[in-house]
């Protein structure tokens, strides 16, 4: 009888808890990433719809979420971003949960938000740089992510003003 209960627990309860735990970890990573993207959108003390569209599109693309799930995640992340005292709580989770490629993709999303309104405020650039450093992204990958976003935007007709931007800054 005890063996039957143990087998039942192992086959029915433990895998479900592990799945629930994995889902909870994934949700926290999504929330932390979205919160950093929202911080990026507000770095210049303005809330541009183009930046929030970039957040929405980036989250949907990277996390493969529906429009409704993405909107809910952004709403929760907005609350988290307002309650946060610093970026470390988010970057700490991301460092623990993402591999280097995932963290580099997040830096690319930060650049997308930064450049979405075709104006790069110095505070926005500083924030991307700071977050990239907290995520331990190498400078060459930081610049490569920026160039990819600029190239993507320039081929779609956005950000023509940044074609001659000095990358060495």
UniProtKB/TrEMBL annotation:
Residues 30-146 form the Co-chaperone DjlA N-terminal domain. CDD domains: terB_like_2. Pfam families: TerB (PF05099). InterPro entries: DjlA_N, TerB-like. SUPFAM superfamilies: TerB-like. Signal peptide: none annotated. This is TerB family tellurite resistance protein. The lineage of its organism: Bacteria, Pseudomonadati, Pseudomonadota, Gammaproteobacteria, Chromatiales.
